[in-house]
Amino acid sequence: MSRHNIKSLGDAINEFIHEHKLEEKIYEVKIIDEWKKIMGHNVSILTQSITLKNGKLTITLKSSVLRNELQMSKQRVITIINSYLGQSVVKDIIFK
Predict the structure, then answer these.
(1) Per-domain residue ranges for the chain?
(2) What is the CATH number that goes with domain 24-95?
(3) What tens-digit pLDDT sequence spans the chain (96 residues)?
(4) Contact between residue 85 and residue 31 where contact means Cβ atoms under 8 Å apart
(5) Residue 38 · residue 81 · CB < 8 Å
(6) Crossing angle, helix 9-19 and helix 23-39, to 10 degrees?
(7) CA of 49: how far to CAs of 31, 35, 46, 58, in Å?
(8) Whole-angstrom Cα distance, residue 17 to residue 45?
(9) How far from chain centre, in Å, is Cα 34?
(10) What distance lies between CA 57 and its chain's CA centroid?
């Protein structure tokens, strides 16, 4: 293999992620792992599940009161999450 065909490990990993369309799944895992930091302890303990598909974040909550509260500030939550991720990943949120 010639030297100009050698890729850095980071480039190879990024290429693999892009080719296999794993970017969104990686963001989903990051949101799940960092949910407590992003939204705080009180929201995190009342969260049952988080999924991200086609830019739509679905959050299942244990509290209808919290669900209604977050629904009213949906755009602010989207902004907070996207700001944390450093790019516009979440386009919409569904609170269940």
Answers:
(1) 24-95
(2) 3.30.300
(3) 456 678 787 777 777 667 767 788 989 999 999 999 999 999 999 999 999 999 999 999 999 999 999 999 999 999 999 999 999 999 999 999
(4) yes
(5) yes
(6) 100
(7) 11, 11, 10, 8
(8) 31
(9) 9
(10) 7
